[in-house]
Design a protein that fits this description.
The complex is a heterodimer. Chain A is 26% helix and 15% strand. Chain A is an alpha+beta fold. In chain A, strands 3, 4, 5 and 9 form a four-stranded antiparallel sheet that branches. The N and C termini of chain A lie far apart (67 Å). Chain B is mostly helical. The chains are: A alpha+beta, B mainly alpha. The A-B interface holds A 50, 52, 70-71, 74, 79, 81-88, 91, 95, 97-98, 102, 118, 120, 150, 152-154, 413 and B 105, 114-121, 124-125, 128, 141-147, 222-223, 226, 237-238, 242, 245, 250-251.
Chain lengths: 462, 357
C-alpha cells in the first residue's frame, strides 16, 4: 500500500511539473516556421506573380465578406462623372483623377509623368508656414492643401505642375558610376494669384495591398520601435506622427501616406475621394472648392453613400500581399544578409505580428513581413520636401513598406520609386537615402558589384 | 494446383492494370515545341491582329456613314449608323477576350470604352462655342474619357430613351458625332498598327532570346488563358452582377442601344475564337494543344462555353428589364459563365503550365 501511494504521488508530481512547465512556457516570439519567409502577409498571402499580383482578396475571407470586397473592388474601379448623374456622380468640380484605380493601376504604384506629360498618377500637396486648427498643414488661400490640376468641362482647374529633371553622376566605391535624377517642380497656369511662399510636396500613388494588416498592428507595437531622441545611439530615431482623426475628433497615431499623415484606412479613403476625385462623403462632407469660384453650389453632399465608402475601405483593407519568389536562391539569401548587414532592417523592419482581434479574425495575430516600421525618419536634405505635415518635418518620411516591391515592373510597367517617383530603379532609390539612412547607404556604396547585385535580387524577391 | 487455377486471372488483371496505367508518352508524333510555336503565331496574326484590322475597317465604315448622316440627315441614314455601331461593337466586345498588349498598355481601352457617359460635361461641350473636331476630342486628356469612345457615340445615335429620330439630331450633336467617329477610327488604327507593327511578332516569338514581353511560351499561354478567364469574371461578376445586385437598370452598360446582352454574348464568343485560333480565318489555336493531350478537357471547355452562350441567349427580354423581371434567367447565365471561368482557371491554366512550353 505504501509503495502504491508513493507511485501515485510521483505520478501526480510529474504531471504537475509538466503542467507547470507548459503553463510557464512563454510564447516563443523567435519561433518561426521555415516557410514563414515566403508568406509576406501571413495567412493573407497569395502566390501570383503576374500583373494581377496586387489585386487579390484575402484568401480566408468568408463568402459574405468576399462579396463586400467585390463591391468595393467595383467601386474602386469606377469612373466618376460630374453631378447630377444617375451613375457614379460627383466628380469634381476640380480633381486629380476620375477614380481610385485611375491612379492606383492594378492596385499598385503610380508612374511619374515623362517630359511634356502632365502629372496624372501623382499629386501635389501645398501649404504655407504655420498650422491649421488641428496642428496640420496650413492651407493656401484659394487653393486648400492640395493642387487639383483637372476640372470638369467649363470649370477652371487650379493650375498645372511642370516637372523637369536633371541628371547627376555619382560613383560607387569600386568606381562604377550611377546616375540620380533631380526633379524640379514649377506651378503654372494658376487660376488666381498663387502665393510665392507656398511649400510643395509631390506624392505618387502608393500601392494599396496589405494595408489592412498594417492597420492591424497595435499602436503599442508601432510605438515600441520609436526612439525619437535616439537614446540607444544607433543613429536611427523613429518618430511617430500624431495626426487629427476626423472620426474620433482627436489626435491619434498616423500610419498611412508618405508622411504617415492619415490615422486609418477609412480616413485615407475618404480624404482621397474628397480631395483627389472631388467626391464628398460622411468623413469629409464639404467640397474641396468651398469658398472658391469653382464651387458647384449643389446641395447633393455627401455625394458618396456610406455603404460605398465603407466597402471601398474594406476593399483596400482586405487586399492580400503577394508571396515572395526565389527565397531559397543563394544569391537572394546573400542579399538578405547584406540588407541586414548594412542596417537597412533597422527601419525596414522585416517581421512583426498583428494584434489579436477577435472581431476580425482575418487580420488577427498574423506574422507578417512588411519591411516597414510605420515611423518617420529624417531622410536627408536631398529627399526633403521641406513641407511639414503634422509632426513630420520637411526632412522626414515614413519608412515605405517593401513587400511586393519586386513586382512593381510586372504590375505597373515601371520602376519609379520614392514619394515623387524620382528613382528609376531600386538601386537609385537606395542611393537617394540620406539623413538617418546615410550610414546604411554608404555601406551599400562600398559593396562590390556582386554584393549590390545580390542586394537587389533580394529586394526583387520581396 | 489450387493457386495455379487463379494464375491466368491474376495475370490478366495485372496486365490490364499495367496497360491502363501506362501513359501514351510520345502521344503519336506531336512535336510540342513546333505546335506551340505555331499556335502562338496563329493566335497573334489570325486572332488578335486580325481583330484590330477588322476594328479599323469597321470604324472606317462608321465614319463614312456618319459623314453621310451629317449631310443627309434621314432616319434611314441614322439606322445605317446604328447598325454599323453594333457591328464594330461586336468586333470590340469579342476582342475583350484578349484584352492584353497595346490595347491595355497604351490605354486604348479607357479611351475607347469608358463608361458611364458624363452627360453634364457633354451638354456643356455641346452648349459651348468650342469648335468640335477631332483635335478637340484628342485634346481631352484621360480625365475626360467619359466624353469619347463607343458610349457617347451610342448616346448621340440613340438618345437617352433609345427612340431618337434623325430630326432630333442638332447641328452641334452632328459636329460632335463626326469628331467622335474620327477619333474612334484613329484609335482603332493605333491599336491595329501596334499589333501589325511589332507586337504580334512579340507574341509569335515568345521565348526567343531578348523577348522580355514574353520570356517564354508558357508565359504567353498563361496571359492568354488569364484574359479568357478574365472576361468571364468581368461579364458575370461585373457587367451583369452590378446592375443585378443593385436592381438598377441605370448601371447597365450600352443602355441606349439596348445592346447589353449582345455585348455579353460577344465577350463570351471571343473566348472560343481565341481558343480555336480563328477570328476571320481558321488556324491553330490552344484547342489543338488541348486536343493533343486531353480530349475530355477540350470537351468540357466547349460544353461549358456553349452552355454559357445558350444561357445568355435564353434571356428573353432586354437586360435592363431582365434584372427586374427575369431574375432566374440572369442568375443562370451568370452561373454558367462562372462555371466556364472555373474550368479555364482551374483546369486550362494548369494544363498550359504543364504543356505550354
Amino acid at each position: 500500500m505504501r509503495i502504491r501511494a508513493t507511485y501515485k504521488f510521483c505520478f501526480f508530481l510529474i504531471i504537475s511539473i509538466t503542467a507547470v512547465l507548459i503553463a510557464c512556457n512563454k510564447f516563443d516570439t523567435g519561433y518561426s516556421n521555415p516557410d514563414d519567409e515566403w508568406r509576406s502577409g501571413g495567412k493573407q498571402t497569395v502566390f501570383d506573380q503576374s500583373s494581377k499580383a496586387f489585386g487579390h482578396p484575402f484568401p480566408t475571407l468568408s463568402e459574405t465578406l468576399e462579396r463586400v470586397h467585390e463591391v468595393g473592388d467595383i467601386q474602386f474601379e469606377a469612373t466618376f462623372v460630374s453631378a447630377p448623374a444617375q451613375v457614379n456622380p460627383g466628380l469634381g468640380p476640380i480633381f486629380n483623377n476620375v477614380g481610385c484605380a485611375s491612379c492606383h493601376i492594378g492596385d499598385g504604384r503610380g508612374k511619374v509623368p515623362g517630359a511634356g506629360e502632365t502629372s496624372v498618377l501623382m499629386l501635389f500637396r501645398i501649404s504655407r508656414e504655420g498650422n491649421d486648427q488641428h496642428d496640420g498643414p496650413n492651407p493656401v488661400p484659394g487653393y486648400g492643401d492640395q493642387l487639383q490640376n483637372r476640372s470638369n468641362i467649363g470649370v477652371q482647374k487650379e493650375g498645372d505642375v511642370e516637372i523637369s529633371y536633371h541628371d547627376e553622376t555619382f560613383y560607387f566605391e569600386d568606381g562604377t558610376p550611377y546616375n540620380l535624377r533631380f526633379p524640379t517642380y514649377k506651378i503654372t497656369n494658376t487660376y488666381t494669384s498663387f502665393p510665392a511662399d507656398v511649400m510643395l510636396s509631390p506624392r505618387v500613388a502608393a500601392p494599396v495591398f496589405g494595408l489592412g494588416l498594417l492597420e492591424a498592428v497595435s499602436d503599442a507595437d508601432v510605438l515600441s520601435r520609436a526612439d525619437e531622441n535616439d537614446s540607444d545611439g544607433d543613429g536611427i530615431s523613429g518618430k511617430p506622427n500624431y495626426v487629427w482623426n476626423f472620426t474620433t475628433k482627436s489626435t491619434t497615431l498616423g500610419r498611412f501616406g508618405w508622411k504617415a499623415n492619415q490615422p486609418n484606412l477609412l480616413q485615407q479613403v475618404a480624404a482621397a475621394y474628397n480631395q483627389d476625385i472631388g467626391i464628398t462623403n460622411a468623413v469629409f462632407p464639404n467640397e474641396s472648392t468651398i469658398g472658391q469660384p469653382q464651387y458647384d453650389g449643389l446641395s447633393d453632399d455627401p455625394e458618396l453613400t456610406d455603404s460605398i465608402l465603407h466597402s471601398v475601405e474594406f476593399y483596400v483593407k482586405t487586399l492580400a500581399v503577394p508571396g515572395r519568389r526565389n527565397v531559397n536562391d543563394p544569391v537572394v539569401q546573400q542579399g538578405r544578409q547584406l540588407f541586414a548587414g548594412a542596417g537597412c532592417d533597422k527601419c525596414h523592419i522585416p517581421s512583426m505580428r498583428t494584434a489579436v482581434n477577435v472581431a476580425f479574425p482575418d487580420v488577427s495575430n498574423q506574422l507578417i513581413h512588411p519591411y516597414t516600421d510605420m515611423l518617420l525618419h529624417d531622410m536627408g536634405d536631398s529627399l526633403a520636401d521641406h513641407r511639414p505635415d503634422y509632426l513630420a518635418s520637411g526632412n522626414e518620411w515614413r519608412t515605405a513598406p517593401l513587400w511586393g516591391i519586386g513586382l512593381t515592373q510586372k504590375v505597373n510597367g515601371h520602376n519609379n520609386f520614392l514619394h515623387d517617383g524620382r528613382a528609376r530603379s531600386l538601386m537609385e532609390a537606395i542611393m537617394w537615402h540620406g539623413g538617418e539612412a546615410l550610414h546604411a547607404r554608404n555601406k551599400v556604396k562600398a559593396m562590390t558589384s556582386d554584393e549590390r547585385n545580390a542586394l537587389i535580387k533580394f529586394l526583387e524577391s520581396l | 494446383m489450387l493457386r495455379l487455377k487463379y494464375l491466368p486471372l491474376c495475370l490478366s488483371i495485372g496486365a490490364v492494370t499495367i496497360f491502363s496505367c501506362t501513359k501514351d508518352d510520345n502521344n503519336g508524333e506531336v512535336d510540342i515545341t513546333a505546335l506551340n510555336t505555331e499556335i502562338l503565331q496563329h493566335t497573334a496574326s489570325n486572332v488578335c491582329a486580325a481583330s484590330y484590322v477588322d476594328l479599323s475597317a469597321k470604324a472606317g465604315q462608321l465614319l463614312t456613314a456618319v459623314n453621310t448622316l451629317n449631310t443627309t440627315t434621314t432616319d434611314g441614314n441614322l439606322n445605317t449608323c446604328r447598325d454599323l455601331w453594333k457591328s464594330i461593337r461586336q468586333t470590340w466586345e469579342k476582342s475583350e477576350a484578349w484584352l492584353f498588349g497595346p490595347v491595355d498598355v497604351d490605354k486604348i481601352d479607357p479611351r475607347i470604352d469608358t463608361w458611364p457617359v458624363d452627360f453634364n460635361d457633354l451638354n456643356t461641350v455641346l452648349a459651348s462655342s468650342d469648335e468640335l473636331n477631332e483635335e478637340y476630342i484628342a485634346s481631352l486628356n484621360e480625365d475626360h474619357d467619359a466624353l469619347r469612345g463607343f458610349h457617347p457615340i451610342e448616346y448621340l445615335l440613340w438618345g437617352q430613351d433609345g427612340e431618337k429620330t434623325a430630326s432630333e439630331l442638332t447641328g452641334r450633336e452632328k459636329e460632335y458625332l463626326l469628331a467622335l467617329a474620327q477619333n474612334l477610327k484613329t484609335l482603332a488604327d493605333e491599336v491595329k498598327t501596334s499589333w501589325s507593327g511589332g507586337y504580334a511578332n512579340l507574341l509569335a516569338t515568345a521565348g526567343a532570346s531578348g523577348n522580355t514581353e514574353y520570356p517564354s511560351r508558357k508565359v504567353a499561354f498563361e496571359i492568354i488563358v488569364d484574359a479568357m478567364a478574365g472576361i468571364c469574371d468581368e461579364v458575370a461578376n461585373g457587367k451583369m452582377k452590378d446592375p443585378f445586385d443593385a436592381q438598377d437598370p441605370n448601371l447597365e452598360e450600352s443602355p441606349f442601344a439596348q445592346n447589353s446582352i449582345t455585348d455579353f454574348t460577344n465577350n463570351i464568343t471571343g473566348i472560343m475564337e481565341i481558343y480555336q485560333g480563328k477570328f476571320a480565318e481558321d488556324g491553330k489555336g490552344l484547342e489543338d494543344l488541348v486536343r493533343a493531350y486531353n480530349l475530355s478537357l477540350d470537351n468540357e471547355i466547349k460544353t461549358k462555353h456553349s452552355t454559357a452562350i445558350a444561357a445568355l441567349k435564353a434571356i428573353t427580354v432586354p437586360f435592363g428589364e431582365a434584372i427586374l423581371t427575369k431574375q432566374s434567367q440572369v442568375q443562370t447565365a451568370m452561373d454558367k459563365i462562372n462555371d466556364l471561368a472555373t474550368t479555364l482557371e482551374e483546369k486550362l491554366k494548369p494544363f498550359v503550365q504543364q504543356y505550354g512550353n
